[in-house]
Design goal:
CATH topology: TIM Barrel
Largest sheet: 8 strands, parallel, barrel
CATH class: Alpha Beta
CATH superfamily: Phosphoenolpyruvate-binding domains
Strand order of the largest sheet: 1-2-3-4-5-6-7-8
Shape: globular
Oligomer: single chain
Number of helices: 11
CATH architecture: Alpha-Beta Barrel
GO biological process, one term: pantothenate biosynthetic process
Cofactor: Mg(2+)
Number of strands: 8
Main location: cytoplasm
Number of domains: 1
Catalytic activity: (6R)-5,10-methylene-5,6,7,8-tetrahydrofolate + 3-methyl-2-oxobutanoate + H2O = 2-dehydropantoate + (6S)-5,6,7,8-tetrahydrofolate
Helix content: 25-40%
Function: Catalyzes the reversible reaction in which hydroxymethyl group from 5,10-methylenetetrahydrofolate is transferred onto alpha-ketoisovalerate to form ketopantoate.
Radius of gyration: 17 Å
Structural class: alpha/beta
Distance between the termini: 46 Å
Length: about 280
């Protein structure tokens, strides 16, 4: 049974303007996935800035081969569970596959994830015209948006697998153009996944909104990992951009605290976690 930890030290709530201030001041932002109240409580107590309810739950929780089978109802359910374990950490949740197929569906999904799930921000993949319209429509209605570019998992079939994006010059230029477009549409945050380190640095410098990297090198404004990857419990091979923070430590709490400390200091990610 989940019981709130009343002894946890009080923290100042993380806000969207606060994240923008962290970028401006050069302070690293720490983001980590969570899918239930118990892990959310551990994330909260470790001082993580942003908890992400990722549709990655389709793979690491449900056992699917991709994120595509995850439904909006499931995302609302997991978001609400995570919300019960948080107090100061900002809660971001993914729009599942095809929930953003047009503006009306994106607005409906955003309203449910915020209203029923308790999210403070929704994450949406890509920069196609209808996505840019949806970002604008959501932010106009006071629903903050985190964009997601680079290796976008919902495009796995189009990419032909989970492949690094932006290696060729024209592809890199396109990622930068898309990043500027989602910022212009109103996104307050960008997750940049699976791109060369030099491109991660280029995008981060080009934007005034924070850029959170996952396999995008050390120059991003912050980092995010799937919590099961950084605990070393995801079945199969761990992604190159991740690290087993539980190895050599005695508890999940210690592992998350080590992750937070290494992101804050810039020790993680190291060169071996990036791509050329």
């Amino acid at each position: 049974m989940y019981v709130e930890n009343a002894s946890a030290p009080a923290r100042k709530s993380v806000t969207v303007p606060g994240l923008h201030a962290m970028k401006a001041e050069g302070r690293k932002i720490v983001m980590l996935t969570a899918y239930d109240a118990s892990f959310a409580s551990q994330v909260e107590q470790a001082g993580v800035d942003i908890a992400l309810v990722g549709d990655s739950l389709g793979m690491v929780v449900q056992g699917h081969r991709s994120t595509l089978p995850v439904t909006l109802d499931q995302m609302v359910y997991h978001t609400a569970a995570v919300a019960r374990g948080l107090s100061a950490t900002l809660l971001v949740t993914d729009m599942p596959f095809m929930a953003d197929r047009d503006v009306s569906h994106a607005l409906e999904a955003g309203a449910r994830l915020v209203g029923e799930g308790g999210a403070a921000m929704v994450k949406i993949e890509g920069a196609a015209p209808h996505i840019l319209e949806s970002i604008h429509a959501l932010t106009e209605r006071a629903i903050p948006v985190c964009a997601h570019l680079g290796l976008t998992p919902q495009s796995v079939h189009k990419f032909g697998g989970f492949k690094i994006q932006g290696r060729a010059q024209d592809a890199a230029d396109r990622v930068v153009s898309e990043a500027l477009a989602v910022q212009q549409a109103g996104a307050d945050l960008l997750v940049l996944e699976g791109v060369p380190t030099v491109l991660g640095e280029r995008v981060t410098k080009a934007l005034h909104i924070p850029v959170i990297g996952i396999g995008a090198g050390p120059h991003c404004d912050g980092q995010v990992l799937v919590i099961y990857d950084m605990l070393g419990i995801t079945p199969g091979k761990r992604p190159k951009f991740s690290k087993d923070f539980l190895a050599g430590r005695h508890s999940v709490a210690e592992a998350i605290q080590a992750y937070v400390a290494d992101v804050r200091s810039g020790a993680f990610p190291a060169a071996e976690h990036g791509f050329n």
